[in-house]
Amino acid sequence: MIRSELVQKVSSENPHLSNKDVERLVTAFFDTIANQLARGGRVELRGFGAFSTRQRDARTGRNPRTGAAVAVDAKRVPYFKPGKEMRERLNV
Q1: 33-77: per-residue pLDDT in tens?
Q2: How many angstroms separate the CA atoms of 72 and 57, rounded?
Q3: Which of 10, 31, 40, 66 is 20 to 30 A from residue 2's alpha carbon, by CA?
Q4: DSSP string, 35-51
Q5: Rounded (10°) CA dihedral 85, 86, 89, 92
Q6: CA-CA distance, 38 to 78, in Å (whole number)?
Q7: What is the largest CA-CA distance in the chain?
Q8: CATH classification (class only), 42-92
């Protein structure tokens, strides 16, 4: 499912809300999660899962086209850990 499909699904299930309102809601939801992760925080949605970040150390990578060694800087990457209810729904 892509973002626009999510907006359409929420709009169809809530006819009293306009598409514009649902789009703002979805944008605010994702922006809030992204901002919290950018501050180094964690977002936990009970029954769904938890978003956090993990640190990746600097390393030497390879350019796939030329095979040349390339320095890859250390960075934080987003990480999602599904909750117990989500795992159970997926493994019925």
Answers
A1: 999 999 999 999 999 999 999 999 999 999 999 999 999 999 999
A2: 9
A3: 40
A4: HHHHTT--EEETTTEEE
A5: -90
A6: 9
A7: 57
A8: few secondary structures
- The residue with tokens 């729904």 is 89
- Looking up tokens 């977002």, which residue turns up? 43
Helix (H, G, I), strand (E, B) or coil at 23: helix
pLDDT at 92: 86
Cα 90 to Cα 53: distance, rounded to the nearest angstrom: 23
Q: DSSP assignment, residue 17?
A: S
| Every domain of the chain and the residues it spans | 1-39, 42-92
> Which amino acid is present at 27?
T
- Residue 75 pairs in a beta bridge with 56
